[in-house]
Amino acid sequence: MTHLGKPIKFLDNLPSQMGNDEDQALWLLVKEGDQASFGILLERYYPVLMNYGVRIKDDPEFIKDCLHDLFVEIWNRRYQLDSVHNLKSYLLASLRRRVIRESKRLRWFKEARELNDDYHFEVQFTIEHYLINNEIKHESLKKLKVNLDRLTKRQREVIYLRFYQELDYDEISKIMEINRHSAVNLIYEALKLLRKNWFLASMSVLPEFIFNMTLGSY
Amino acid sequence: MDDHIMKAYDLFQLEDFVQDIYFRQWVLGQLEPEDEFWTNWQKKYPEKKGLLEQAALVIKTFQCDPGYVNPQADAESINSIMAAINLPAERKLWVRNWLSVAAVTLLAVGLSFLLLTDGKDRQPTYLVDSWKTDAGVKNYENTAQDPMYVLLSDGSEIWLQKASSLRVDESFGQSVRKVILEGAAEFKVQRDVKRPFYVYANGLTTKVLGTTFKVVSYDQDKVSVSVSSGKVTVYQDKPNKEIELSDELILKPNQQAIFFKTEKKLVKTLVEKPLRMPEELNISSIYNESPMNQVLKDLEMAYGVTILYDEDLLKKCNLTATLSSESLYDKLELICETIHAKYQIVDGQILITARGCI
Question: Which ipTM score applies to this complex?
Answer without folding.
Answer: 0.80
